[in-house]
Amino acid sequence: MSLSQLPFSQSCENNKAPILAVLKQSFKTTRRVLEIGSGTGQHAVFFASHLPHLTWCPSDQPQFIEPLEMRIALQGGDNIAPPVTLDVTAPWPLTPGEVDGIFSANTLHIMSEAMVVDFFKGVERHLSNTGSLCVYGPFNYHNQYTSESNRQFDIWLKHRNIHSGIRDIEWITELAEAAGLNLQADYEMPANNRLLHFMR
Ligand SMILES: C[S@@+](CC[C@H](N)C(=O)[O-])C[C@H]1O[C@@H](n2cnc3c(N)ncnc32)[C@H](O)[C@@H]1O
């Protein structure tokens, strides 16, 4: 299969450079990053190639793994691990403390609230004691949308799956704190997105 036949996300192309600029700081001393919900793998190959001091470990639900493997075979470098199957609701295929970074883009508004709770339980269990968590995507403040386009997007999400929805930064921060993580920075990103950096 050639690159042009693989699943492709234009939004990944648009947001990868601004996200990288933040990750260069947030993951400056990080050695091994688990990515949750890698999707097409465009972020994984781009971030791995621009963050050569660390190993990037992509993961996703089973149906995403084959195309992810293909993209990595075609575009991946030495510091990207083979993708693993990881559904946040099932036991995670890694040992506690194995990673000192966790990254996830555009996943928390796709997952149900129960899955988001599982996400943070998994982070609590698996992130090393000095680790960083970076989550990227659209977020609300105090149940308020930050833009009209996010409000429209939320309606579209819920129409597709009633359990999806843009999450409140306050709720995400509470879950993170319960997992032993504090919000270090809340970066404004293009297209009404945020990047939240939490640290142990
Ligand atoms: C909108 S896509 C985002 C993909 C990619 N990170 C990006 O930014 O383009 C949402 C991703 O969340 C993942 N996801 C949804 N529910 C999940 C779960 N329970 N466990 C792990 N990943 C999940 C999906 O498999 C999918 O890869």
Q: Please provide the ordered H/E string of secondary-structure elements.
A: HEHEEHEEHEEHEHEE
Query: Strands across the major sheet, in which order?
Result: 2-1-5-6-10-9
Our count of domains comes out at 1
Amino-to-carboxy terminus distance: 41 Å
The tally of strands reads 10
Helix content: 25-40%
Shape: globular
Shape-level CATH architecture: 3-Layer(aba) Sandwich
Q: Tell me the major beta sheet.
A: 6 strands, mixed
Heteromolecules bound:
S-adenosylmethionine
Poorly predicted ranges: none
Strand content: 15-25%
- Topology-level CATH name: Rossmann fold
Helical segment tally? 6
- CATH superfamily membership, which one? Vaccinia Virus protein VP39
Structural class: alpha/beta
Mean pLDDT reading: 97
Supply Rg.
16 Å
What's the CATH C level?
Alpha Beta
What do these coordinates show?
It is built from six helices and ten strands; from the N terminus they run αβαββαββαββαβαββ. The mean pLDDT is 97. The chain has one domain (10-199): Rossmann fold. It is of the alpha/beta class and 200 residues long. α1 packs parallel to α2 (42-50). It has a six-stranded mixed sheet with strand order 2-1-5-6-10-9, sandwiched between helices. Strands 3-4 form a two-stranded parallel ribbon. It has helices at 10-26, 42-50, 62-75, 113-126, 148-160, 169-178, and strands at 32-35, 55-57, 59-60, 84-85, 99-105, 127-137, 139-140, 167-168, 182-189, 193-199. It binds S-adenosylmethionine. S-adenosylmethionine (SAM) is lined by residues 9, 12, 36-39, 43, 60-61, 64, 86-89, 105-107, 110-111, 115.
